[in-house]
Amino acid sequence: MYVLSLTLEGANMAQQERARRTREKALTAAAEVFASHGYSRTTLSEVAERIGMTKGALYGHFPSKSSLARALIDESRQAWASLRTEYDTPGADAEGVLEGVVVNFADRLRSDVRLRATVRIAADCPVLARTLADVLTEVQNALMELIRRAQRDSGFPPYSPRLVANLLMTVTYGVLYAPAACLESDGAHDGEPLWRLLFGALSGSGVTGSGRGDGRGVSDP
């Protein structure tokens, strides 16, 4: 009886693992199609075909196209939360945390098709855009909190936290659509000089064309 129980438990675990892998494949496939074709032109049949399964089998994991989209939007919320956890550690400099989460979130947008698909979904589907807007509001509020902390603890200039947060979010999503050549500078291909310039200008630390501080400072406007 004990052996049978262990066998059944092992079979259940294997089944759960297969279901998890299938779900992950489905999300990646859906993200690729969403990012390429947009929400309205994506079909469950195309997603199922991309991962070699029937539409009926896909229904077992995601009963509708909107459920796939909502799962990807939920992941975008988790991605942001994980970055906050990674960088916003006890005793960390608030300005450094602010730069770290923004730059790495921008990098994730460019490299992670699942995260990138949420931007296309927001542009194509007004109903789901409202759901994503809730995520963006969370991101904005988190940035404003970090900006206030940086102003209080790190000498960050007293610009409007909401204005700075909106600027950072605008640049973050703008970088997603910028041609690669626009992000290249002095051999760098990851947009680092652009971010150094932006954060240097915001903090008043002063930057050179290469994105490195020159020690001269920049007066506040």
UniProtKB/TrEMBL annotation:
Q: Which SUPFAM superfamilies match?
A: Homeodomain-like (SSF46689), Tetracyclin repressor-like, C-terminal domain (SSF48498)
- Keyword DNA-binding included in the entry's annotation: yes
InterPro entries, alphabetized:
Homeodomain-like_sf (IPR009057), HTH-type_TetR-like_transc_reg (IPR050109), HTH_TetR (IPR001647), Tet_transcr_reg_TetR-rel_C_sf (IPR036271)
Query: Per the database record, which ranges form the HTH tetR-type domain?
Result: 20-80
What residue stretch is flagged as signal peptide? none
Q: Which residues bind DNA?
A: 43-62
Q: Which Gene3D superfamilies match?
A: Tetracycline Repressor, domain 2 (1.10.357.10)
Question: What keywords tag this UniProt record?
Answer: DNA-binding, Transcription, Transcription regulation
The reply on keyword Transcription is: yes
Pfam families listed in its UniProt record: TetR_N
Which PANTHER family does this one have?
A: HTH-TYPE TRANSCRIPTIONAL REGULATOR BETI, HTH-TYPE TRANSCRIPTIONAL REGULATOR RUTR
Q: Which protein, by its recorded name, is this?
A: TetR/AcrR family transcriptional regulator
Q: What is the lineage of its organism?
A: Bacteria, Bacillati, Actinomycetota, Actinomycetes, Kitasatosporales
